[in-house]
Amino acid sequence: xxxxxxxxxxxxxxxxxxxxxxxxxxxxxxxxxxxxxxxxxxxxxxxxxxxxxxxxxxxxxxxxxxxxxxxxxxxxxxxxxxxxxxxxxxxxxxxxxxxxxxxxxxxxxxxxxxxxxxxxxxxxxxxxxxxxxxxxxxxxxxxxxxxxxxxxxxxxx
Length: 157
Prior knowledge:
By secondary structure, the protein is mostly beta strands. The chain has one helix and 15 strands.
């Protein structure tokens, strides 16, 4: 396989780890079948673990991107670019992936195609994990506030 392609392979049996510039995803069916896990090339570190939903791993990186990777074949489903690094694990609800970024924005991303649904701007970067409850998504920001947003619209509640 060509270096720098969308998937590379390595034999490991652990969680997501950073090896040079390749993130290895030994999750999903590989643990059951004992076959080789996939690797996804990113430019900078992953700070937190992935979020799995329907055999898709969602994770952010300090390269400013949110990745959706199909764990059944290792293909990158989509990449969503933010304005700065991601320092948190995304949350997934229904058809939306939620993630905060150090660019002061909290994003709602379409789970199927990676398109932006809405975003909310804070006064500082976002390090906290999003928490989903009912029709709300909660998160904290370095501006000292705890936010409660409507999951569908992004309106401040």
